[in-house]
User: Fold these one by one.
Assistant:
Number 1:
Amino acid sequence: MKLDKRIKLTQRGYGLLKRYCPGLIAAKVWASAADALTPFVTIWFSARIINEIAGERNLSRLGSYVLMTVIINFALSMLKNALDKVVDEKESGMWNYFPKIFADKQMSLAYTDLEDQEIQKKKQKAQENLFMFGNGLGQLVWDTAGLVQVIVGIIASLSLSVSLFISRSGNALLDSWIWLPVGMLVVIISGISTGKLRQLAGKAFDDWTAGTVWYNRAFMFYGHELYDDLSRAKDVRIYHQDRIADREMQKLNAHNKDDGTNIRKMSCYPAMIVFMQGICNALCYGFVVAKAAMGAFAIGSIVQYAGALIKLVQSIGELVDANYENVIYTGHLEKLFEYLDIQSNVTGGELVPDMECKAEHKIEFKNVSFRYPGSDRYALQNVTATVTSGKKQALVGENGAGKTTFVKLLCRLYDPDEGVILLDGKDIREYDLEEYLKLFAYVFQDFKLFSLSLGENIAVSAEYDPEKLEECILRAYFKERFSTMPQGAETYLYKDIAEDGVMISGGEAQKIALARALYKDAPVMIFDEPTAALDPIAEAQVYSDFDRIIADKTAIYVSHRLSSCRFCDEIMVFENGSIVQKGTHEELCKEIGGKYHELWNAQAKYYQNDDKQYH
């Protein structure tokens, strides 16, 4: 990757950190700068102190040098310690901020993008690099300190050593200008060689740990998720899947077998680095001592020049390291930004539905056809239907008939491939998406609640109207359970966040989901198997009182239980992606041989008493 591209990626990475982890990089830069300056303060004042002792021995100046050394180092130390506290706090919290990057991106994508395998592969790769190894953003954070120390080290070292080459000893050979480029060349060669050897040691380590991405992913599953995920707990125990996990863990433990080659390399390269630095340090000391012996400068300056040159060699080596690390993490940043730069397919216009006329909206499907991404089969084909305001409509049919797809298109989770959906005579794609979605409250079959308070789950907000909340709880038949909750609406669900959180059953969760839909108070209520987890008594209560629950709103009801559709004003029967029948329960039952009649009789026989089976 070219340098200019790496610079742009690095800058963009810092921009992302500034947005999601504000203050982290600034604190790290200043803390690292204070840390990097400290040894140079000591080197400079030590040279002054030794020169004074070897010269005039002025106690006043000596005292000033000592006092200034202590004060400046103390100030730098205090600054570094204070900033380190900020860095530690922010760096420990950055792992909580990083998931927000992916959450924001997911929310910006169209629902169809979430099912795109290529998009999800990019997301998974970026997440693995970031969360398993800290590559990319994490490595950028950690390497910032080293980069700052390199820059400060090179600038400070050059500032303290430049006078070495312009000071005069009276010896033509030692005072020759040639020593400046020679000295810089020696320092640069040593620094680069040291950096290259570190890279070779790093490569040997990478080779030794080859396959670690797979190893970590498998280890996290077999050693952690398989046992901790409660949704798998029953199967693990009943089918003794822990035996499979133990077997796989034994395979994983064999991943680090090595013939010793890489281990020897990892041992040899550091020794070679020490040897190379020793040669360069000896050359630097030799030149500095030679000029001092010829009277070019006072003896205390040996400390300054030798220390500065050694730090310069070290800094150049670290610069090579920093460049090598930058190559690595910018490669990972590029993968992250490939995912973040995916253009969303979400489109919308500027129209805003009139929310005041809640019972007067008209939604029409006109010759709508749709296929899921990657599928050749139509999930809906040539569907024409009207969602009638203020009416209760049921969608019935066998699995895969198109019922749920119909309501997903209605809510613009997908857009039709053919045909058009109209709201009050306008294509729904002409409406602002966020405003359009305010029309609907949806209880999904696979709904999710969150480890937040009951009130926040229902209101989907940290602030809510207590009276409205209790009214929705009552209408959703959750009042009895609610009365037992220790903190009322402030009671946390589940124990992920709060130790005193309450566990709720599937039926209770479904009532909360119903209360959430009621609290939104949207003109159109959509229920996809809303009583699947309820007991028969609770289900009967919901059905018998459905008119009071939804009041004068438009309701769309998706269900496999045809008996629950009897209270609806209209039933639409789906088969193979098409609407094959429409009408009331009584009308459809009279159509002998029709799909509804077939489905109704198939279910009804399970509820009919056959006295013979009891005798």
Number 2:
Amino acid sequence: MSTPEKVPPRDLFIVCGLGSLGQYCVAHLKEFGVKVVGIELTPPSSWEIASFPDQLERFIVGDCCQGEVLQSAGIQQARAILFVTSDERINISAAFAARSLNPTVRLVVRSAQENLNQLLAEQVGNFVAYEATQLPASSFALAALGSDIQGVFILEEQPFQVFTIQIGPNHRWRDRRQLFELQGSRRRVLEHRRGHQPVAKNFYNWEPEERIQAGDIVSYVEIAETLTSFVPTEAPDSKQDKRPNLARLPHWGTLSQKLSVFWKGSSQAQRAALVSAMLMLVLSLSCAGLYRLQYPDMSLLDAINASILLIFGNFDGLYADRILEDPPPGWLYVFSVFIMVAGTLFIGILYALLTERVLAARFQFAKRRPPLPKAGHMVVIGLGHVGQRVVKILQDLKQPVVGVGSANLASEALPDLPLVTGSYKDALDRVNLETAKSVLLLTDDEVANLELGLMVRQRNPRCNLVIRSLEERFAKSVGKLLPGAKVLGIYAQAAEVFVGAAFGENILHSFRLGDRTTLVTEYSIEAGDTLCGYLISQVAYGYGLVPILHQQRDQDSVKLMPSEDIRLEAGDRLVVLADTDDLQRVEQGKIAPRRWLVRVEKMAFPNSEFDGMQTIARISGCDVSVASTLMQTLPGTLPCPLYKHQALRLVRALSKLQIRAHLLAAPM
């Protein structure tokens, strides 16, 4: 992030790979007013984005893996370089070449190798990787639900949910709540509009004191009650504490609990094997001890060897290996026979356990998939990487799902998924399409998706139809041809994540809210940047961000839905909801002006002066002396301009103290 007073010292960005994803990355970067250099090995005959070459500072034809090409693009002066070709091997190889030429440049790589990406982030530094086709998986799954939920993500093991609801005549908020009353320790309002109004372009284009009416549409984010298994595509948390946690080390309590769970869930053969193994361990140690006691000259190794030979029934081996020269006394001979009988029984139990395991594995291999649901299910057509991830999300949300894919899908992949193989068109006759709740068309062939979409709409016009598209223009055309269908262009959405990451922000998650992509973005506050020194309320209303998590410097605990009166300091951590326009304003330090003043008329009780002074200083962020002077010279106007939401909150807080105040428009 830059300071408000000056332009970033390096405003050059390089995009390697100018396919659909690369072109959208360039388009979003240009919205930030930066210089962009493009590199492509083979220029396409036509560009997906009109007049695309005009957006580039320079266009270089060459191999981005070659150092000369990167140097000619200006990598030494670049702030970030995005490797977004369709070949992840080339992306990773080129990233190494770029790092050798510029040790500090930000590397944003398109790659689906999650483990490798995490290792590279630790070793290479200033490195982040995403897979463009998998980023929108949660958007596909949530679109298929056809419900109010718009997004689900997890921060600090706490789930958050984003909803868009339409207020019905019997809704508990109707005519009872004002919008500011929805704000609380677990919820933040994102958008409010009447049914006929267009979608707002800012999170705070709503009036806090407006009363909710039937037909209103309200979007909000809230902390969910329970932690589910639903974990959407996230970027790895580079700041996760890697230090060992002593509380996680095993101790007797957890060990006994695990043994109890194992005992209850094990078969008879497993229990017998466990008891037999413990018994044989005791007997073998006893046998070795007794032989050492009877034959003092026998070494410990020979005593242990004698017990092993007896367990396997080889009494003659004691003489063949010259462990014994003379026959043992009668009592030791009887004990040795007992050891041999116990060993024979133990080996038999061991063979039985192994046989059970082999048969179980064989039956598991031949296990048939579950039957197809009859109604209310979701059909996922296309089980590539995106399709499988979408299926997993839907299964975690306890939704009945049917998959349509190729016959070579591994049996261990999604074993609980009812599967239909063969031609996609023929499969429509076998998935109970007429009673399906949703159909997701996620193949790599856009034309096939369109054809299947038309067939689905003809046979089941009531189902939720979700279509995957690679090109934004194609997505808009299909949307017009199939009204009501949700056509999602994956590259346009993914590009916003790549661009946000290019500016050094940690993009934790993304979801669709209306027709725009919302990014869950983490900021590390640094001295002199565009957020340091501001109240959270000023950051929220000035930049259009929705703060949902704050962590103070050198503090382990975090605050979810933090108070707006916290002042951000260097070293703090802040997680917000934002879109690329919001990130652009933060990057450039373009904070909105404050246009409202608070006029304080009088206080009902003289002893309210101190509380009023503290309230004014806390909410407005002004100096305590300014608030004190105001309270001592009533009536008066607070000289510090505020944002409207902030000013109204101050008026309400003063009203609770029996201090009368109201808003005035600040002079322009």
Number 3:
Amino acid sequence: MSQSNIQAVNLKQINAFVQTHARLFLLFAAFALIGAFVFHNLQTASAQTQPKVQTLPPTPFRIGERLTYNVSFANLNNAAYAETYVVSRGRLGDKDAVELRSKIKTNELVSAFYLIDESRTTYAASDSGLPLYIRKMSNEGVTPKETVGNFTVNPTAYNDLLTVIYQARNAGGSGSFNFQEDDKIYNATFLNTGKSEKFKNAAGEFETSVSTVESNFLTENGIKNLTINFSADEARIPVLIRFKTAKGVFRAEIASIQTIEPENSAELPPVAAPSPRPVVTPKPIVTPTPYIENQPLPKELPFELGETLEYQITNGGQLIGLIALQAKERKQYSGQDSLLLTATVTETQPNQQIFKLNDAIRAQVNPESLAPQQIELKLNGALSAFNQQVLFDQRTGAAVSNNGNQMEIPVGTHSILSLAYAIRSFNLKPSKDLTNPVNDTRVAVFLDSKDYVFTLRPATADIINLRGETISAQLISINTGNPAIDQYNLRLWLGNDEKRLPLRLSFGTYRADLVSEKQIAPKQP
């Protein structure tokens, strides 16, 4: 039986790449609506015995309570992180107020479709539960964006997405409540279905009752079938939240329940200032050393940053256009070191319909392993049906397309463009016995909407004529496992020098020949 060399890549966890979209913020608000049902009825014995606390009027908020949630999407376990925290109770001007905080941030692949990184601080009246002051900070764009709502002078009759939660909890998971978000008024209806379920995870085991939630806010944002499992005790902790979107099913599970000593106690004197100045928790420095863009690529790779290869494309000997491949730049992509590879149509002939000028494929890859992080096809000619964007999670073995489809793939799977560069580093030694090709190399490649196992069969040195010169090359026969492609006898010639340049590619009557090689330095910031 013949043996094979399997190309495999061990990768770091990729973080999600993304662009800000208005719906994403609204989805965060929905998460806040869900996750902010976060408090329980247990207090420490010491807190119960403090005279100062007992003399205060009762409030629906459990001071010092912090709940965290782990959010999954489809089979991605670490899709997002959510937290709510009842920080303290004190005076806001002449009003008795409770400080609430919430934070939610999407991770990894999910950030490509739902980019959310927002924190919220709400000062709520300790008796009515209505907001007195709201501060939202969004970190999704290039610069943070702050939104403030001040109701200390002109009180509001509406909840926000944090305070409405406590109103619903006090009503036992049932009731209809109005809230205001981004200058729009919404209504949320909670209905206890009477259904009981047991829920168990690392945070504990809970007897729960199930409530459904309906709101025009959710409908506007494409959220369906929202259900919340509340603990059946007096705390009414939302331990499990589930809902559907067009892109898949989200599931938020309680990860921890804590009671933390309040940052400010009820003994503090009244705040003299009429307008609050919320305390912003300093953000830790994630990376002590600034990231340096366009660092040189590892010496082990047979090409350098800025390498630009131009190919002449012919069909039956007739010129149809030029395509340039470029290792364009090395920058951060979704917070991760990344190399951008591009393939761009730079010239076309009028008598063909395959390519259009500026048709392009862009791929983000790991600069060391060349494993793909993302690929995007933007084609306008006959190949436009293949347009798509795909994000790769090599840690979990998943590929997610821009239409929300998620596919399982082998860890180490390449995109078609990352393979074009990675193949130059493969150990493609030909077999000494041509009747027993033990040196075939197999590599998983994502193509269109699924992964295929490409078989690369290396031959001995060959001589080809390129630009009027005879050049030593190695022929690589490629079998994709897709009969519709393999009928065209895909073959690649790699140069035999240390650069291992792809000199020629043939596909049926089509052929791509290298016509120029040059270095184009990346643009410096």
Number 4:
Amino acid sequence: MALLQPKLKLKVAQRQVLTPGLMQMVSVLALNKLELKEMIDTEMVENPVLEEINESVPMLDQVAGREEKLERSAEEATVTPKDVFNEIDFGSYFREYLDPGYRTQPEFEESEKPSFENFLSQPTTLSDHLAWQLGTLSLDAGLAEAAEFVIGNLDEDGYLAASDEELASAFQQTPENGVAEEIQPEENSASLEMIRRAIDLVQQLDPAGVSARDLRECLLIQIRAQQREFSHLYAKPADAPDEDSQRSLHAEAQAHLDERRRSMEVAAMIVDRHLHLLQKRDMKALARAIQVSPEEAHNGAEFIRTLDPRPGRIYNREQTRLIEPDVVFTKRGDEWVVSMNEEDLPSLRLSQRYRRMLVAENTDKEVKEYVKERFRSALQLMRNIAQRKSTILRTCEVIVRRQRDFLEKGIEALHPMMIKEVAEEIGVHPSTVSRAVANKYAHTPQGVFELRFFFSEGANGPEGADTPLLVLKRKVRKLIEEEDARHPWTDDQLAAMLQAQGIQITRRTVAKYREDMNIPSTHQRRRREV
């Protein structure tokens, strides 16, 4: 049996190691202006060596110089004492205090002010809105808990994806109800019944359509809610007036009400059994299927258009993201110039006071080591910020040189450009260019665009005249928007029209771009006459 013995073994290998300085350089390069400002503010709080150059705010060394000057003036005052009492201007003194509009300056007074948190607003989510409505109802504890459980399982669109059995099983195991060792059939049936009652309750809350299983149920809930509201408002028809003019107006209003009521009934029939025919926009087939006139089918379809297929989105909207351009493209004469937008960015410098601490002989050794380490960190940060600026400027100079036609003519003159090509031109790795343009925006005469907007592949045309995919998709969308709705273009026809413009493209490519832009097919876009 072989014994385990320790052995020394040498191995030569190469591997890439990211030093802390290199990691910081990579992270700083990927930051936009707002994120960089936040990072600099954080570093200034953590690193006392860093100071902001601001003429309105005195630096630490300036404050120290003023203190030394005050000390020297105090020493001179002790050598040549003066009678301070004789220097008082009693005239102005009494005028200030006798002025009825005078108020003492509360230099050391701190008033109790409300926190800024009291002024911050938080958008109401769908769960908050439903829970608020639930709190206004008088419900027993079990039903209220089940309704809260159902609300917690809604997705951002307001739909309920889990089945009744899954919800009942999960509701039984909630901490409020405790975890049963063995669930009895009677308990399971009671929980299932409670969940179904809770679902029906949530479906009656605002917005109408929440807690539905699918699109069909969501639309039916909204139609029934409007039918109940309509019947409640116009339950008792008013007696016809005596005069002929008023009688005709009353008959016309009653006809509009009947038409509206009939549109709701037809819409409910369409959604309940023939939603697939509505997607095809075939009004004649739809009218035959539900045995109504084509005009009634058209009115029912128009009523369905007023419904919201995603009722929860009105409370779950994405928050607006602030955008501030990092670079500005301006034209001076015949040349385009790239300039960094460094407004509101702190200008950093190293503290003179801490420099003197390093050369002072009476400074403690541990303090010197700490200050040295802080100086290294500050210098590394300032170098990385300068490197970020240089990389972004060089990248944007290439963008401006290659996209000059876009800056002068507009988006139709955009040229294809790859990140790899720009990286080779400025002599860096493509990942460096990718980080330099990530989440950064440029202010141009054509508007504010993300730097990644200028990078796009091209579809080859005759004589090497490439067309960017972005422009190509816009051409496809424009052709579809200008088509006759009764006779929409097929993918083959769209490809032939683009080829006539000098763009070599196939039918499959057109279909792919159309699907990427969520544009329906030719059959689904066709509108048939009623």
